[in-house]
User: Fold this.
Amino acid sequence: MQRTTDKEWDQVWIGADIATMVAGAEPYGNIENAALAVKGERIAWIGPAAEGLSRAGAQNLPIQDAHGLWMTPGLIDCHTHLVYGGNRIEEFEKRLCGVSYEDIARAGGGIQSTVLATRAATHEELHASAAIRAKQLMSEGVTTIEVKSGYGLELAAERRLLEVARDLGKELPVSIKKTFLGLHALPQEFAAHRQDFVAQVSGPWLESLAAAGLVDAVDAFCENIAFSLAETEQLLQAARQMGLPAHVHAGQLSDMGAAELAAKWDALSAGHLEYLSAAGARSLSAARTVAVLLPAAYFTLRQTTPPPVAMLREAGVALAVATDCNPGSAPCTSILLALNMACTLFGLTPEEALSGATRQAARALGELDDIGTIEVGKRADVAFWRIDRPAELCYGLGANPCVDVMHRGKLRAHG
Ligand code: NIG
Ligand code: FE
Assistant:
C-alpha cells in the first residue's frame, strides 16, 4: 500500500471508490472502498477505508464520508481555444446550407471572422465570455485547461488573449496552461507578406510573449488552408531554441505529413489526426507525441473519416481526448460529451476515453509528474462523482454526475 512518512493529514475521505487511472492490472486503476488523505495541495495517502479510518482517529482528524461516491483525477481538457470574441452562428447556418468549412475559410470567414471579433472586443468582454466557458468545463470535474491564443494574430491582441487565460487561472479554482498559437491563420494585413508574418510570429512576438511569462508552449495549424510544413517548422525551431515545448494541429482536413513534423520536433501533442498515414502514426509513437483526439470538431464539421484509432493503438501512440472548445469547429464546453463522442464516433473504450482526459491529457501537457492520476505525491486535483462505475462518465449525453471538485487540495464548494 502506498504511504508517506508524514502522518499529518489535513483532510481524509473515507469509503469512496477511486478510479486512480494509474495504468496497471485493475481497470481504471480502481481501488474500491478506499480512503484518500490530503496534506496541503498534495495527495498524502491512499489505502483501504478501514485503515484510513484508524489512522485518522490516531490523528484526531475529522473524517469526510465519501461512501457512494467515485473519485477520479480532476479532468484535464488539454486542447481548447477558450478565449475569443463573438461567435460563428452565421457560419453554422451557412454550413448547414451546404457551404464547406474550407470554402468559408478561403472566403475570409472562419478563423478570420473570429479574429476581427476578438480584436474588436474589450479585455472585459473577452474575460467574461471565457470565464463562462471555463466554469462550464469546471462544472464537469475539469481542474486543468489548456488555452490557446490564435484569434488575435497581432502582437497586442495575442498578448491580451494569453493574459486573459493567465488571469482565469489566478481567479478561478482551475489550472491553466497557456499556448501561443501564433500560426493559426494568416491575418489580412499580412496577405501579401506571408513570410514576414511567420518570421514575426517565430521571432519578436514569441520572444516578447515568452519574456512576459505568457507562453507555456507554442502551436501551429499545419494545414493546406493554414500553414505549410516549412512555415510550421520555423515556429517549432524557434520554440526549441527557447526551450519551449510544442503542440501541432495536424491532419484535420488532409495529410500533409504534419504528424511526422510534430514528431521530428518532439511535440508534446498532435491534435485532430483524422488524416494520418501508418508512417505518421509510427513517428508519433517513436517521439512519444500524444495524439489528441477532438471528436466535437469532427462532429460539428460533420466529417466522415475518423482518426485511425486502430492504427494509432497498434503503433503504441498515447491517445488523449479534448473538447477543442472554439467558436468555429467545436462550440463545445462539455468534456463529458467529448468523452462520449470519442467512444461513440471514434470507437475508444470508455477506459481509453477517460484515460484520454486524465493520464494521457497530463502527458500531452508535459505534466504527468504532477497531475493526471490519483497517486501519493501528486497534486490533490480530484473530481467526485455520483455514478455506478467509471464508464458512466462516457455513457451519458448531457448528464452531469459531478458532485464536487477538489483543486490543489481545496474543495470548490468551500472556495
Ligand atoms: O482546432 N484547426 C484550427 N483551429 C480550430 C478551429 C478554429 C476555428 O474554426 O475557429 C480547431 O478546429
Ligand atoms: Fe484546435
